[in-house]
């Protein structure tokens, strides 16, 4: 994006730093235009120029944080076929869930915070921010594969949403009883999901 | 299956009726070979002839129950395109979950029975039996579409498992906070899943 005459040079960067700092202080914080502009020392008009909506602002901040924490993302390992890389990336999301008792404990946390009772607005916004981080992360992987030519250009937001729905299903299934090894059927589901995306 | 000389005519039917009755009396019952054979008045050898494993027996009983309760299944409505029918069928599985408070209550039941603590063997077997009913139901839909020529012949068990993983993901998402209408993104995910199956 080019800086327009109406905004001071560097204001975009200052806004992102201010917003990231505020999120660092309180991960569940809502980044209101007014509060972030005040923290960055810019006008709300300037902030709106760079980030027309609160969601665009939050997304930019979260994407920036993600690039910072995961610079050696395996999606870039071009010695491995695209489908294996994408399945490997999705496994990264599933890995912290564990299996058996650990998977049940992971789901308990989600259940108690978000499902047992109607979540508070703050909890809800915190969850939606985390969900967008995940969505960004998957869209980032898809963008890398599209740039390589391994994925037809298309609606990566919708593709990422679909892949995350499959991951959510697998997360639930890891916590539920299973007749066979969960990892065998999980493998088949991950490749089916990834092939659905890469094939069209 | 033809009756062999070693089994009395009609014993297969008597076994299925006995097992279905036992399941009707206690849906979480394990259908042991010995107990079902006793109830049906056949030898365990005859039961093993018709149903080599407990799982084959349970599957046959559950498939029979399903054909009985859903004779007017919309999968047979050939005026509607195959993909729309299959999406409609999957919606039937999702419908009882509801949205919002109702979806959270539905997940609470699953959580408390199966996830909060390690389920008992009886609860576990009851869940696996229900899961196989679902799996049969989806495989039945896929078999109908394959017979029509709308679906290439292939591994319908694995395809059904994949579709149920997507349904599980959507079930969890119905109970979680959502930025947009859950039904819009759900629609996209259901068609993506179904197209992945019908396309290959």
UniProtKB/TrEMBL annotation, chains A, B:
Pfam families hit by this protein: TetR_N
SUPFAM superfamilies given in the database record: Homeodomain-like
HTH tetR-type domain sequence ranges: 9-69
Alphabetic keyword roster: DNA-binding, Transcription, Transcription regulation
GO MF annotation terms: DNA-binding transcription factor activity; transcription cis-regulatory region binding
Domain of life (superkingdom): Bacteria
Keyword Ribonucleoprotein: no
DNA-binding region, residue range(s): 32-51
Record protein name field: TetR family transcriptional regulator
Source species: Murinocardiopsis flavida
């Amino acid at each position: 994006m080019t800086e327009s005459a109406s905004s001071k040079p560097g204001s975009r960067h200052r806004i992102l730093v201010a917003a990231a700092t505020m999120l660092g202080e309180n991960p569940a914080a809502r980044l209101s235009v007014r509060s972030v502009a005040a923290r960055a020392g810019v006008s709300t008009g300037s902030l709106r120029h760079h980030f027309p909506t609160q969601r665009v602002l939050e997304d930019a901040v979260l994407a920036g944080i993600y690039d910072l924490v995961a610079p050696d993302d395996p999606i870039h390992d071009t010695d491995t076929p695209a489908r294996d890389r994408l399945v490997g990336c999705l496994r990264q999301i599933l890995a912290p869930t564990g299996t058996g008792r650990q998977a049940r404990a992971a789901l308990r946390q989600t259940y108690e915070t978000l499902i047992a009772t109607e979540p508070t607005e703050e909890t809800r916004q915190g969850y939606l921010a985390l969900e967008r981080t995940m969505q960004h992360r998957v869209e980032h992987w898809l963008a890398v594969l599209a740039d390589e030519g391994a994925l037809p250009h298309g609606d990566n937001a919708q593709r990422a949403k679909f892949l995350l729905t499959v991951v959510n299903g697998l997360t639930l299934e890891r916590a539920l009883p299973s007749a066979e090894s969960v990892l065998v059927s999980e493998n088949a589901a991950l490749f089916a999901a990834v092939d659905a995306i890469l094939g069209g």
